[in-house]
Structures are given as C-alpha cells and as structure tokens.
Design goal:
Chain A: Keywords: Signal. Chain A: Pfam families: SBP_bac_1 (PF01547). Chain A: InterPro entries: Bact_solute-bd_prot1, SBP. The complex is a heterodimer of chains A (476) and B (308). Chain A is 46% helix and 15% strand. With 476 residues, chain A is α/β, with parallel strands linked by helices. Chain A folds into two domains: 198 residues, Periplasmic binding protein-like II (D-Maltodextrin-Binding Protein, domain 2); 223 residues, D-Maltodextrin-Binding Protein, domain 2, CATH 3.40.190. A five-stranded mixed β-sheet of chain A has the order 2-1-3-15-6, covered by helices on one side. Chain B is mainly α. Chain B has one domain: MetI-like (MetI-like fold, Orthogonal Bundle), CATH 1.10.3720. The chains are: A alpha/beta (476), B mainly alpha (308). Chains A and B meet through helix 1, helix 2, helix 4, helix 5 and helix 21 of A and helix 2, helix 3 and helix 9 of B.
Chain lengths: 476, 308
C-alpha cells in the first residue's frame, strides 16, 4: 500500500512538472521579436564584439581566418579608436565540417547566445530566419534607412544579394559567390594521352576520359562527390550540377523534384562511375572522404574532380591550401561541366554550373546592434574586401572589386566570365536542407550497390516528408 | 522502489510494533533537510531532464525552421513513427549486436579469462597487465578513438601494416566488427577487476578438494567457481550491457556510417537530433531507449533475486 501511494505521489509530481513545462518550449522566442531596443548601448564607449566563422588559421579556409584576425579586426579597432570608442573584437574560429558548424550555431542561437556577427551558408538563411535565430537587418539595426542607404548594396548584384535574403528581406551581407567546374590533373591526362585543354561536351566524354585514366596504375579516374558523409558537398558538387545538366532543377514552379526520369539519369551516371571502377566507392563512405579526395588529387592520384573555385583558392593553393600543390598553376586544368548531351541542360544550355555562397549576419541578441552594423559595413567596404584577398583573387560580392582583381587569376576570371553567366543558384527555401539530405542518401544508396530505381523511390518518399505533402513534389 | 523496505517490514512485526520510522531521531523535518540537497541535485540533473525529454518527445520541435519557434504538440505520432522507422529498427538491431558482441560476450569472457589467469601469476606480471588493461579504460574517448581510427585506417593504418592487407578499409567494410573489437578492448578492465575480486571469494579449500577429486579445469569452473560468483556475473553483465547500449564512442569512429551500417541507437539519436534537426523525434527515441534500459535492468534484477 505504501509503495502504491508513493508511486501516486511521484506520478502527480511528474504530471505537475509536465504541465509546467508545456508551453515553455520555443515560445520564449516569439515574445520579443522587435521587442528589444535596437539602440541599446548605441553610445557605449566600451564595446565588445565577437565574429564567428567556420575558418581557422592553418586549417579550414585559413586565408579567411587570417584576414579576419590579423587585418580586419585590428583595422576596425583602430578605426573606432579614432571615433573615441574602445572596441574589443574577438574572433571565434571553427575548423569543422559545415554541418557541425551549423549545429553548433543553431544550438548557440536557440539559447540566445553565439557570436555577434557570424558567417553562414546562404542556404541556411531560410531555416535560421524561420526559427527566429536571425532577423531582417532592418529589424536588428532598427532603422530601415540606415541599412538600405548603405552604399555597398549598389555594388552587389541582385543574384548575389539573394544569398543573404529570405522572402525578399535582407538578413545579411553576402560574402561573394562561386562557381563549379571539373578540375583535372594535366600530368595524369598527359600520361593517359588526353589533351591538356580537355573540355568534355557530354557525360559520355567524361566517362571515356575516365576509361583512359583507368589504365594508369594507382589512379582513381573520377571523383564526383556522393553519399551522406560529405553532406552538402555531395549535393552541390555532384547531384545538382548533373541535375541541371539534364534540364531539371531541384525546385520549379513551387514543387520539389521527385522520382523523375532526370533524377534517375543522374543516379544512373553515379551508378556508371561507381560500379565500373571509374570512381572510388569507399572514399564516398569515409567520414573524412572529402578531405581525403583533396589529398589524393594533390598527390596525383585522382584524374577528374568536380569542385567550386574554393578548390583552386583554398585546397590546392600552393601556400595556404589544405592540400597544397606546388605546381598548381601548371598541373591543374579546369573545364566547364557539360550537360548530359549538348543542349540538354537547363534553359537548353550546353554547359552548366551551380553557385552558392555565404553571408555575414548579425545576431539579433547582440548587446551592440549599432556597432555590429558598423563592423558589418566596415567589413564589406571596398577597401576591406580588397584587403581580404591579400593579393590573391576571389569572386567577391562587390562588382567594383571584382573588376579590379579577377583579371590577375586565369581560373577565377574563367569562373567570372564563363561560369557565372550559365550558373544556377539553390532555392533559398527552408525545406531545401532536408531535400538535399534526401538527395545525398539516394547517391549513398547507389554507391552502396542499390538499384537506381530503388534509390529513386526511397528518395521520393523522403522528399514528400520534407515537403509536407505529395502535391509539392513532381513525378515523372 | 519497494524492495528495500520489504525486509524492514518483515522484521518489525516480530517486535509487535510498526516499522521503526525514525531510527536516527531526527524528526521528519530535519530528515528532509538532510536529504534536500541530494534531492535538489537529482531533481535538477536527472528528473527534470527526463521529464523535459518526455515533453519534447510529444512535440515536433526542431533545431531550425518554423518548428524551432513555435513547436506544436503532436501527441504520440513520434512514437508511431519510430515503430515504423526502418532506420530505428536498424539501430535497435545494431545496438543488440553491439551489446551482445562487445559486452555480454567480449568484455565478460575476456575480463574473466584475464582475471582467472592473473590469479596465479607473479604480482609484477599481474600489476603490469592490469595497468595496461586499465589504461584502455581510463583514457579519454577522443584520444582512444583517434588511436583506433589510426589503427583501422585504410591508408597506412597499423592493422593493415601488421596483416599486410594494404588498402582494406576496415571501418567501411566491417564497421560493426571493428566496433565490437574496439569496445571489448575499451571496456574489459571493469569486468577483469570485478571478477578478480569475485574470485577471491571462492574458498581455496573447495578448489583444492576439486583438484583432489580429479575435476577438470572446466568442471572446476562450472561446479565450484561459478556458483560462488554467479551474482557477480549477473551484476557485471547488467552494468556493462547498459553502458554499452548507451555508449556514444562508436560515433567517434564511424559517425554511424557507412550508410547507417554502424548506427547504434545513441548515434542514431544524435544524427536525428543534430544532423536532421528533429529534436522532437529524437527525444521520443531517447525515451524509448530509457524504457529499454529499465526493462533490461528489471530482467537482471529478477534473475539476481531468484539466486537468493
């Protein structure tokens, strides 16, 4: 009897606690949208700001971290000192996989902490905005004119501004864009009897080059990212460029791509590469597969590799790259990604590409919103953007800077002149990351030996769940 | 919960009065004052999170997106989803394999064998072996995981160099087998120590008699040693299977991959919660894991009680 009554007490207490909890979850966020004073601490003489970025000196995106820590921060501090404000800016670098960085940021932001300014991938803007983790710049800064009158906006093309926008509102300032191409190792191409100015015109051309490379001992002919371990790199470097090469896009007329012939063509191409020894299926499953593929390319063990200009700037870059190639300029060639057949690409194109990019956003819970916006403008001024390049070239967000710097680098002017005009951007929709995960799983299934049809069927089911209903998915 | 009070109640009627409720003479108020700090700690760090998990488990709370701001209660649909989720079934099965292979068989047998052999060896040898086995147990998981990744690595891994099997990706081709070996190595120390002390409880005279009657080694173990340490075997098996079932270090080696082939339940929960952002669903699975743990404990407790 006694134990029974004790049980009842525990039960009642538990129920009471549950009742107390109910309604606490998440609701704390909805109450204060716009409730905070945007001018809080606007006149503070002692200011502390933190910049968060997924880069770290000597590791991931080392050049970016070096710029933020050694150039931007000291210059901003000096600039503010001139205005009589004592600013301390801390750099919170990270060197992890993008997914891990995103998890960490989300957890920080959901607890109203995290850095005052931080860089995120353009495709996260939608879900972060929906979660209230970031707010439109005009809300955070409080004064619409102050944000919209910034002269930098005029220099940033609309398509690039979209990387930091959601539902037509600006959430952050984009940090430039990129384009995807096929990189190839000219030394291996020479050994295999392939031309140094290789430019495939169809998927079959890629395959036949792969077959020629396969004859070289110890060489993996083709690396097209696949599987879930590489995360978004699989979608962006592999599936989506192939998909636009079939004439389809991942989201059209408000519907997500389902189990269509185009999707199956893409999966068939994966199957062809990974079942015939043209690609290394094990690499796609390894936890550090992408890093390993970089190292193998740099060690002349991979013939063709699909990547963005990031690969050229930060991976095989001779000085600061994560997989340095001392002879990059002579050994690494690049080619446009061909459509499946000439003219079969999206908009009837012969060649296709995908572009993305990040944006810097302000934490809505920063103690110093005005100063954060100052730093944001300072960071994206023509001078600083130019400084961030440190003599190297990169497709920046600012047209004025681009026209000055890109001519110095053949690869990047190729991206700017040849790739950006034919490129596609990912939809900035909140469901996108889930659809992307489903695509990655489909390639993982194919690489693991599942049939294309089975993988495509499973994919469609996952997309229906992600999109919320069958009506939002295209079929056949 | 009721079991500790049972013997007290059994004794009390003999004295013709109710059970002694206040042996220490503190009074109810002061007694509560004494245990209050403990209760507060348990409440804050054990009961509250557990209730919180149950609550999140009935919502569609997500890490990002609309449901992160305004989650709604979805009742039991997370649980029905789990019951129909092929990946969850996969995770359960892999956890079972993991517990059976690395804890119930691996750690138990290796731990006992070490304890049995070490019983008669010179103290110097015993101390050295124990130190090494213990080292595997006390090193931080991240350090250990790094060593084992290097051990299993496809390019220049130690195992490949030893066996001359260059290019074999052990963690990709045989992920579960790798994890079982890893966890056996990692956790054997506990079983070894527990059995070492348990074996001291076996009366040497009985072992002597067994030898005089010509019992074989196996007969001695089965008929003389085992009856003495049965309780220890059960306790040990209970503890190590619970630890193993809840162990997260497989994530450090394989992240659950390749393609979910080594995704035990704790890893699956992590992947669902943080990779997929589905905090509500992952909480529901966490709660199911909690229930499974309780059930396993109950079965073991039954077995233990039947012994006495």
């Amino acid at each position: 009897m006694r134990s029974l009554s004790r049980l009842t007490t525990v039960g009642v207490l538990g129920a009471a606690a549950l009742a107390l909890l109910t309604g606490c979850l998440g609701s704390s966020d909805s109450g204060d949208s716009g409730g905070q004073d945007a001018n809080r601490n606007a006149d503070a003489k002692k200011v502390e700001l933190t910049i968060g970025s997924n880069s770290v000196k000597g590791g991931k995106s080392s050049a970016g971290a070096t710029f933020l820590e050694d150039v931007l921060i000291p210059k901003f501090v000096a600039d503010q000192k001139g205005k009589g404000v004592d600013v301390t800016v801390k750099f919170q670098g990270d060197g992890s996989d993008d997914e891990v960085y995103k998890q960490k940021l989300s957890l920080d932001l959901s607890n109203k902490s995290g850095p005052d300014l931080f860089q995120i991938d353009g495709i996260w803007v939608g879900e972060f905005a929906q979660a209230g983790y970031i707010k439109p710049l005009t809300d955070t800064v409080g004064d619409a004119a102050k944000v919209n009158d910034w002269d930098g906006w005029k220099q940033i093309p609309e398509s690039v501004q979209a990387l930091g926008s959601y539902n037509g509102q600006r959430y952050g300032v984009p940090g430039g864009t990129d384009g995807r191409v096929l990189y190839f190792n000219k030394k291996l191409f020479q050994q295999a009897g392939l031309p140094a100015d290789w430019q495939p015109k169809s998927w079959d051309d890629i395959i036949s080059a792969g077959q020629a490379l396969k004859k070289l001992p110890g060489v993996t002919p083709i690396q097209i990212n696949a599987g879930t371990a590489m995360g978004e790199a699989t979608t962006m470097q592999g599936i989506l460029p192939l998909l636009v090469g079939t004439g389809a896009t991942i989201n059209s007329d408000g519907k997500w791509l389902g189990n269509t012939p185009q999707l199956r063509q893409v999966l068939d191409f994966y199957h062809q590469i990974y079942s015939t020894g043209l690609g290394d299926p094990v690499l796609q499953k390894e936890a550090k597969g992408r890093d390993k593929s970089f190292a193998e390319f740099a060690a002349n063990k991979i013939g063709v590799l699909g990547e963005s200009d990031y690969f050229w700037r930060s991976v095989v870059e001779p000085k600061e790259g994560v997989a340095k190639m001392a002879d990059r300029d002579s050994a690494v060639g690049w080619a446009l990604i061909p459509a499946m057949k000439p003219g079969a690409g999206v908009k009837g194109q012969d060649f296709v590409s995908m572009s993305g990019g990040g944006a810097t956003v302000i934490n809505p819970n920063t103690k110093f919103p005005q100063q954060a916006w100052e730093l944001m403008q300072f960071m994206n001024s023509a001078d600083m953007v130019k400084e961030s390049l440190d003599g190297a070239a990169k497709i920046t967000q600012r047209s004025d800077v681009n026209s000055e710097v890109l001519s110095g680098d053949p690869m990047l002017s190729f991206i700017a002149d040849k790739v950006l005009p034919i490129t596609q951007f990912r939809p900035g929709l909140a469901e996108y990351p889930k659809v992307s995960a489903a695509l990655q799983q489909a390639t993982a299934d194919v690489v693991a030996g599942k049939s294309t049809d089975a993988a495509a069927t499973a994919y469609e089911k996952a997309v229906e769940t992600a999109a919320g209903s069958k009506d939002k998915v295209t079929t056949n | 919960m009721a079991s500790p009070s049972a013997p007290v109640e059994g004794v009390a009627p003999a004295r013709g009065r109710g059970p002694a409720r206040d042996v220490a003479g503190l009074g109810v108020g002061r007694a509560f004052g004494f245990v209050a700090p403990a209760f507060l700690l348990i409440g804050a760090f054990l009961i509250f999170p557990a209730l919180w998990t149950i609550y999140i488990g009935i919502t569609n709370y997500r890490l990002t997106g609309v449901e992160a701001v305004s989650p709604s209660v979805v009742g039991l649909s997370n649980y029905t989803k789990a019951l129909n989720d092929a990946l969850f079934h996969n995770a359960l099965w892999l956890t079972l394999v993991f517990v059976l292979g690395s804890a119930i068989i691996g750690q138990n047998i290796l731990g006992f064998t070490l304890a049995w052999i070490m019983r008669r060896t010179r103290p110097a040898v015993r101390r050295t072996v124990e130190a090494f086995v213990l080292l595997a147990w006390i090193l931080p998981s991240t350090v250990v995981a790094y060593l084992w990744v290097a051990f299993y690595d496809r390019d220049g891994g130690t195992l490949n160099s030893l066996l001359g099997t260059q290019g074999t990706a052990w963690l990709i081709d045989y992920p579960m087998a790798c994890l079982v070996v890893f966890n056996t190595w990692r956790g054997t120390a506990f079983s070894m120590m527990l059995y070492s002390s348990a074996l001291q409880a076996v009366p040497p005279s009985q072992l002597e008699s067994a030898r005089m009657f010509g019992a074989s080694g196996w007969q001695t173990l089965r008929d003389v040693v085992f009856p003495h340490i049965r309780g220890h075997v059960l306790t040990n098996t209970l503890l190590i299977s619970l630890w193993t079932a809840n162990d997260f270090s497989p994530f450090l080696l394989t992240k659950g991959g390749p393609n979910h082939e080594s995704e035990t339940v704790p890893v699956y929960i992590y992947n669902v919660a943080l990779q997929g952002g589905e905090l509500g669903y992952s909480s529901a699975i966490s709660f199911l894991l909690l229930i499974a743990n309780l059930l396993v404990s109950l079965v073991y407790l039954r077995l233990l009680r039947r012994r006495s």
